[in-house]
Amino acid sequence: MKNQSHILLILTGNSLDSVRQQFGNFDAHFFAITNAQHTVYAICDKWPDEAVPDITQFDGIIFSGSAAMVDENKPWMQPATKLILMALEKEIPLLCICFGHQLLGLACQALVGPNPKGRALGSRQVTIIKNDDILLRDKPTKLWVQTSHRDVILSKSPHFEVLATAPHDPFHMIKAGKNAWGVQFHPEWNTNIMQSYLEARRAVFDKEWGENATEKEILDIKVSDEASRILLRFVDICRQEHHI
User: Fold this and answer.
1) Domains in the chain: how many in total?
2) DSSP bridge pairs for 127
3) Confidence at residue 138, expressed as pLDDT on a 0 to 100 scale
4) Residues in CB range of 73: below 8 A, 6 or more apart
5) pLDDT value at residue 158
6) Residues of the chain with pLDDT under 70
7) Whose CA is closest to 215, among 229, 230, 201?
8) pLDDT attached to residue 241
9) Whole-angstrom distance, CA of residue 162 vs CA of residue 181
10) In degrees to the nearest 10, what's the CA dihedral of 28, 102, 41, 52?
11) Which structural domain range is residue 232 located in?
12) Structure pTM?
């Protein structure tokens, strides 16, 4: 058994400029939590001009979040979805986060689009309904997570099962196939990154939810250590001998 997993981290976008200045890009957020060896591939910048690394050479794959929206239909989104389908076929451990979660939904033939309940930004409590899953084993039924998204998975698909729900999102965490997971929240974010996102999105969020909505969310930020441990658990799954 290897002592360290080799993870392919696919960036589907970049963190906001003000966040990046303080805390680095999405890859830095992951590196701060995991002890895995990472190969970073910025799919949003390089596709379709550059070939993706051979995914079979990695113990697992993580798709990051993004400020992109699926209705933008950017050139790299379709091949990104095909890459997810390839990982599903080859049963390579796969964790899809936020926008990556939405791409997994698309790959599973679900509808994805703007949440009719509005944008989610801040700490949210999710309810785990399948805590016997290997990724969620020993997790509490309720846990706090950090969120920043407009789009969500809008429909159920026979190609995935729902693992966790949120008041604003019934498909907040899903599993497809043997070992592919999608989480709409950001397990790689701590409270400082969450506050930085809220401050950067203040004008947009206050316009949608009303004056002082952002300030209320900042005051309501919750520690999300259990969510971060889900990311660590995924790395452990990648490290397991029968996946290597």
Assistant:
1) 1
2) 142, 165
3) 85
4) none
5) 96
6) 1-3, 241-244
7) 201
8) 47
9) 10
10) 170
11) 6-243
12) 0.95
